[in-house]
Design brief:
Number of helices: 5
Radius of gyration: 37 Å
Number of strands: 0
Helix content: over 70%
Strand content: under 5%
Oligomer: single chain
Length: 110
């Protein structure tokens, strides 16, 4: 039985190829001659390996903490703007402490 199915399949392929152009005939012959390949099973293992890499890439990156001089300058500027907003009526230390608190919250990301 298997040989008769192969023979009829080959005859069907030849009939279909005879009605097509030469380029299409070559394509039909090449595709008809190749057996269907099975999908290899190791893809599941590859997917498990790729998942942690994707999770790492998706995690948000934290910005590097500013250097001590940069942080000092940020506090200095914030203290000045706080004092300016208040009309320079308070003490410099009060503005500085409030500015440090604001910059700490800003840099912590909360």
């Amino acid at each position: 039985m298997a040989t008769s199915k192969k023979a009829s399949a080959a005859t069907t392929t030849k009939k279909a190829a005879s009605s097509k152009t030469a380029t299409e005939k070559v394509a039909v012959k090449k595709t008809a001659a190749k057996p269907a390949a099975k999908v290899p099973a190791p893809k599941a293992a590859a997917a498990k390996t790729a998942a942690p890499a994707a999770a790492k890439a998706a995690a948000p990156r934290k910005a590097a903490a500013p250097a001590a001089q940069e942080r000092y300058r940020m506090v200095q500027d914030a203290a000045y703007y706080l004092a300016e907003k208040n009309g320079f009526k308070g003490g410099a230390m009060d503005y500085w402490i409030e500015a440090e608190a604001q910059i700490t919250v800003l840099l912590s990301g909360k």
